[in-house]
Amino acid sequence: MTVANQPNDPYATRPWLASYPPGVPAEIDAASYSTLTDLFRSSVANYGPRTAMISFGKSLTYAELGRAADAVASWLQSRGLKKGERVAIVAPNVMAYPAILFGAQLAGGVVVNVNPLYTPSELEHQINDAEARFLFVLENFAHTAQAAWPHMTLETAVIVKPGDLLGWKGAIVNFVSRWVKRAVRPYRLPGSVAFGEALRRGGQAPPEPVNITRDDIAFLQYTGGTTGVAKGAVLLHRNVAANVAQSIAWLAPFFHSAEPQTMVTALPLYHIFGLTACCLLLVGVGGGCLLIANPRDIKGLVTTLKNTRFTMIAGVNTLYAALAEAPGFEKVDFSSLVFCIAGGMATQEAVARKWKQITGRPIVEGYGLSETSPIVVCNRADLPEFSGTIGLPFPSTEISIRSVEGEIVALGERGELCVKGPQVMAGYWKRPDETAAAMTEDGFLRTGDVAVMLENGQVKIVDRLKETIIVSGFNVYPNEVENVLVQHPKVKEAAVVGLPDQHSGEAPVAFVVPRDTSVTAEELHEFCRESLTHYKAPKRFEFRDSLPKSNVGKVLRRVLKEEVLARGKGRETTAH
Description:
Blueprint: H1 36-46, E1 51-55, E2 58-61, H2 62-78, E3 86-90, H3 96-106, E4 110-114, H4 120-130, E5 132-138, H5 142-148, E6 156-160, H6 168-180, E7 193-194, H7 195-202, E8 217-223, E9 231-236, H8 237-251, E10 262-265, H9 272-284, E11 288-291, H10 298-306, E12 312-315, H11 317-325, E13 339-342, H12 349-359, E14 364-368, E15 375-378, E16 392-393, E17 398-402, E18 415-420, E19 427-428, H13 432-438, E20 445-453, E21 459-464, E22 469-471, E23 474-476, H14 478-485, E24 491-501, E25 505-514, H15 521-529, E26 540-543, H16 557-567, E27 573-574
Parallel strand pairs: 1-11, 3-4, 3-5, 4-8, 5-6, 6-7, 10-11, 10-12, 12-13, 13-14, 25-26
Antiparallel strand pairs: 1-2, 8-9, 9-19, 14-15, 15-16, 17-18, 18-20, 20-21, 22-23, 24-25, 26-27
């Protein structure tokens, strides 16, 4: 139903504006955001000597990053990259990542960020769906690319090493990675090019200028849906640049120091949260990103934080909890820390409380989606204590809370959170039906999250309409996992739900009707790991004689979830 002209719309007056901090505008100036290539060129010109990136103790200035990005762009153009063609990146937060990202866009390419922990089948799907021509892959994950290579549309692979762009330190990093940690498995990708060689060749001539507009695609940012099929959110340059401008407007009044900001970038750049809230935001303000290649190495991360001045940190509840519990973390110097943002999953109050006790700074929670570039709502940066809400809508962002029937609900009532703003995607790549289903008739994006808006404009998430499982900020889609489980010869039926997990917020739990009662949790977990990355593979299994179904035969996942929650942990078996 069309609700644009519904009378007495409590959200039309934007009640959240009365709670805005002084100095934050209600609207961002459209002239302040154009394209990400303009943003990058401007920062290189204005902040040339400043530190742009830090990795393994080595700093890269904006001028150096600009030259590396130009070399990547020139090399891609020399290999025939045309405007709008896709370039995929499979890597964690290594120094080469930002150079590849900006270089691909300077050449006119569209960046496809890929989780390096993907299995060959997951990689194959995303690359082929995006129709990518070039793949930049860290050599630690090249064996995955090799396994998928015969089935992918790719033309050329560029092999990146962890030490690329680190100077003499890079040789040490590569030695440790390859020979000490044995992190590089054997691989063979015929016709591949070393990243260093691509830089050398590309650096011989500047890239050809490309006319990039605000309406050109910047990223295909892959996300899932209730079907579990990963689909690319089409993020235009104006969408992402707008979210950067919104973030700067929200935070600028709280940047009291004349010193450049430094963001602890433990969130992966292939994830939209880390991409925008860390990399692009800091480039926009001329700050530096402290790139953390392996955030699971908490001991190493604490050591890095002890040795580096930082002013900002972005993370998910899991990361904040792990750091707060880590030995020696309390000895880190937090005197320069001004802002700690959390998103991706609900932050637990106990974690927020302990974080504040140690650092002296509250965790400021926000909310967003891949489809919204990503930030939609955020708490004030001057928040004295953890609020338990996701905050206030960003400048130039409209929020509407609606019932299942599409009716606008009153303030304080539950309904689906719907969003409109310049950061909202153009649609899903090659999926017009999915795009139409995600939008309301009056142009709002349906988030699938159930929320309430308080009288002061604060938004609080209370439930999800979608059955998406959020594991440490990463989406897991039940159908995707179920489709793998039922391929096991000993499995007749399977259903997967998300249940609370102290470590990751939620964890996938599988309910299985076996064909063969000899089946074990361990073998099903290992079977899933052959096709799914680790956080998608259930470790907890419950074996049943049947699954609850509707009168049309649909498995009722919500009933399964409610049954387990009602009886406590239940009678499931855990794979070890």
